[in-house]
Design the sequence.
């Protein structure tokens, strides 16, 4: 029997997660973490979270979310997770949980289901082969998981593979050819450095040029509050960024993204921003960095040049409702 969310299931769902979801590499959940990720999340909807019961015991948990203010939010519902107890991982149970999520999406007028990095419910996971170094969110469904295989069977189309990449920063150095590229860019009027509101302007205009609401909110707030952000500027006007430069309590370098306005591409600024970002993280004692990028994204070469290696792959998936 599948029922909608009720607080009475909280402890059992956490126990289920810590038994099953961790097998796909997800981080264990405490009560505080469960509340932060799910029930206290502004996008949590009790009618979009479901529990599978068998003889009144919790054997499955599924959660999705929607929001018109999210990227693609007017048309898409986001699948956050479907977790089933080992003996209940059947196509029938996966299908029942998926259909419950999709029904709710359609009730709210959504035209498609997405497994996508824009989902605001961030699921942390452990980086394989490390002492529990972690990444703060999953950009899709792990390709080695049973859920991935089921979603493909259920008609979800793989739109991209996201490569999760990792680097320990203790041996990081900016190579000389990148320093030479920085000197060349400087001769053309470009600087790449930490944002300084006394020297730089045009942050809002730069962020508007990317048409990314998440970047507009986060990077705009960071530059306003004095949180370090690496920027590229042309004659004092900000035309690109990487950051923010925040060392998380777990030792990871947290950053929201990197971008250069199209009209200023071709000067090597993307790689300069990224190497300067790594340098800035190392300078504040950050232990490691992790990121994800599309397997066909040319930027993957920049990350590999910096020493990053791919440690896990996730699938971005979608099904359009008929």
Sequence:
């Amino acid at each position: 029997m599948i029922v909608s969310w009720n607080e009475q299931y909280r402890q059992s769902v956490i126990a289920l997660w810590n038994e099953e979801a961790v097998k796909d590499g997800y981080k264990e959940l405490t009560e505080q973490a469960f509340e932060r990720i799910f029930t206290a999340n502004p996008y949590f909807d009790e009618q979009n979270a479901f529990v599978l019961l068998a003889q009144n015991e919790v054997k499955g948990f599924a959660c999705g979310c929607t929001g018109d203010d999210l990227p693609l939010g007017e048309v898409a519902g986001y699948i956050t997770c479907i977790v089933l107890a080992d003996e209940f991982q059947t196509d029938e149970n996966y299908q029942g949980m998926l259909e419950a999520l999709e029904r709710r999406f359609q009730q709210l007028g959504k035209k498609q289901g997405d497994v996508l990095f824009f989902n605001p419910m961030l699921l942390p996971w452990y980086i394989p082969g490390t002492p529990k170094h972690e990444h703060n969110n999953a950009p899709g469904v792990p390709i080695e998981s049973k859920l991935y295989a089921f979603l493909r069977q259920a008609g979800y189309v793989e739109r991209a593979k996201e490569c999760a990449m990792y680097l320990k920063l203790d041996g990081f150095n900016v190579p000389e050819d990148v320093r030479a590229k920085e000197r060349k860019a400087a001769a053309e009027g470009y600087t790449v450095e930490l944002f300084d509101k006394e020297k730089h302007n045009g942050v809002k205009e730069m962020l508007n040029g990317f048409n990314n609401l998440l970047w507009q909110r986060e990077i705009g707030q960071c530059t306003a509050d004095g949180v370090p952000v690496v920027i590229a500027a042309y004659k004092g006007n900000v035309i690109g960024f990487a950051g923010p430069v925040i060392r998380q309590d777990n030792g990871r370098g947290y950053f929201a993204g990197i971008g250069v306005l199209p009209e200023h591409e071709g000067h090597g600024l993307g790689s300069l921003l990224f190497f300067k970002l790594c340098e800035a993280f190392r300078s504040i004692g950050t232990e490691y960095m992790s990121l994800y990028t599309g397997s066909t994204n040319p930027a993957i070469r920049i990350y590999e040049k910096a020493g990053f290696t791919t440690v896990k792959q996730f699938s971005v998936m979608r099904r359009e409702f008929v």
